[in-house]
Automatic annotation (TrEMBL):
MF (Gene Ontology): oxidoreductase activity
Pfam families in alphabetical order: ELFV_dehydrog (PF00208), ELFV_dehydrog_N (PF02812)
Domain Glutamate/phenylalanine/leucine/valine/L-tryptophan dehydrogenase C-terminal: 186-417
Superkingdom as given in the UniProt entry: Bacteria
Entry's transmembrane regions: none
Keywords from the UniProt entry: Oxidoreductase
Species, as recorded: Luteolibacter algae
UniProt similarity note: Belongs to the Glu/Leu/Phe/Val dehydrogenases family.
Official protein name in the record: Glutamate dehydrogenase
Length: 420
């Protein structure tokens, strides 16, 4: 299994990062091995009846990296590139994210290899419900709590809640987070990840002495994370000069009206042909000058090939794993980009997911103002902790964030000991 996982480029990227930090922390070989490998890898086939009467079998995965500090927490992704190695890497990063934010969770991730944009609502519902049924022995509010990720949303979480609750004989809202408000979702969860990206990017601007009102941003991806990151940055006075989705990229040096673009994508499900900007080649978007570059779509987009050419002051990683280790080395050598690493930058989502789980367990609802204020307090503390640790040890931000997180997990494993 080790060799099989290591063949996957995303998993080997997560391992390369881990090994670098483990060397820095001088972890013992025993603790290193215990922290590195996932506790459980579950793969299921998900057969469904398609609308045309044929049967299709999908492959679904859930990787539970560890449960040392609490239930597994992490999103569920529907995307054609999903495979078990990528899911295992994303599960490992969830671990470090939860530990860094001091949330009482281990990390996990799930995914189904499918093309959600080509499936009907009925097909998506049947696939989600069947996947949930197959997962019932392995999930629960104290075991594994899923949430939305690429290609999934509140509706997906509602179907999981209903399927699990029907099986249990009573409503179990704490089985997932990122639910609709009508099913005891949390106020603020939908925008939490993007809000956090914008909040931390503006913290970084302050450290660099750049005024928000003078700053520009480019956002790759206009889904849940990208859209809300752009909307919050815009509300801070930051000018959004470029955005993209799968259809292509938009550019307007005077600033794109994000509220209008959100209304447009709500109607057309794409940014293509939006009248308030000009279209440019997607590959160019990441290379245009800006103060904040926020990749908020897929992984592996900042590579050895383009890392020397990006022209931003702050790289705000809304996506998971957007920067390859080779690109990291180029950026470190340049020394002129303030990187807010994924495990910190996009942690707003899982932090509000934690708040949602707590509210569900308490059968109590907080206001959006309370949620956002608690979120900002937690993100700010983690940001100061990571920047301080990076400065004191003269190491890059990603290494600092992962070092804090990995030593937390390693400490918990050491204290719990080995059984028997
Ligand atoms: N949702 C959450 O709470 C969290 C998400 N993340 C991470 O953020 C990233 C985005 O997730 P999320 O916003 O939820 O996903 P969504 O599915 O809501 O949105 C994804 C967006 O990325 C676009 N996209 C996909 N491929 C490309 C590409 N090659 N170039 C440009 N744009 C592209 C999609 O375009 P189109 O709509 O045209 O398909 C869409 O706009 C992922 O890496 C995810 O793991 C991290 C933390 C929490
Ligand atoms: O909200 C959650 O539980 C997890 C969100 C997620 O998948 C992520 O942070 O990558």
């Amino acid at each position: 299994m080790r060799e099989e996982l290591l063949k996957n480029p995303v998993f080997s990227m997560a391992i390369e990062q881990f090994d670098r930090v483990a060397d820095f922390l001088q972890l013992s070989p025993e603790i290193r091995e215990r922290c590195k490998w996932p506790k459980r890898i579950i793969t299921v086939t998900v057969p469904i009846r398609k609308d045309d009467g044929t049967t299709e079998v999908y492959f679904g995965h859930r990787v539970q990296h560890h449960l040392t500090r609490g239930p597994v927490k992490g999103g569920l992704r529907y995307h054609p590139d999903v495979d078990v190695g990528e899911v295992a890497a994303l599960a490992m990063w969830m671990n470090w994210k939860c530990a860094l934010l001091d949330l009482p969770f281990g990390g996990g991730k799930g995914g189904i290899c499918c093309k959600p944009m080509e499936m009907s609502e009925g097909e998506l519902e049947r696939m989600t419900r069947r996947f949930t049924m197959e997962m019932i022995p392995f999930i629960g509010p104290e075991i594994d709590v899923m949430a939305p990720d690429m290609g999934t949303n509140e509706q997906t979480m509602a179907w999981i809640t209903d399927t699990y609750s029907t099986h249990s004989g009573h409503l179990v809202p704490s089985i997932v987070t990122g639910k609709p408000l009508t099913l005891q979702g949390s106020a603020g969860r939908t925008r939490a990840t993007g809000h956090g990206v914008a909040f931390l990017a503006s913290n970084a601007l302050k450290k660099l002495g750049v005024e928000s009102a003078e700053a520009t941003a480019i956002v790759q991806g206009f889904g849940n994370v990208g859209m809300h990151a752009a909307a919050t940055m815009s509300s801070y006075g930051i000018k959004i000069i470029g955005v993209s989705d799968v259809s292509g990229a938009l550019w307007n040096p005077e600033g794109i009206d994000i509220q209008k673009l959100m209304a447009y994508t709500g109607k057309h499900q794409t940014i293509e042909n939006f009248p308030g900007a000009q279209s440019i080649p997607s590959g160019e978007l990441l290379l245009r000058p800006c103060d904040i570059l926020a990749p908020c779509a897929i992984g592996g987009v900042i590579t050895k090939a383009n890392a020397a050419a990006i022209k931003c002051k702050v790289l705000a990683e809304g996506a998971n794993g957007p920067t390859t280790p080779e690109a990291d080395r180029v950026i470190e050598e340049r020394g002129d980009v303030f990187v807010i690493p994924d495990v910190l930058c996009n942690a707003g989502g899982v932090t509000v997911s934690y708040f949602e789980w707590v509210q569900n367990l308490q059968r109590f609802q907080w206001t959006e103002r309370e949620v956002i204020s608690k979120l900002e307090t937690k993100l700010n503390a983690a940001f100061e902790q990571v920047t301080g640790f990076a400065m004191r040890n003269n190491i890059p931000m990603r290494m600092a964030a992962q070092a804090i997180a990995i030593s937390t997990v390693a400490g918990a494993k050491k204290t719990r000991g080995l059984f028997p």
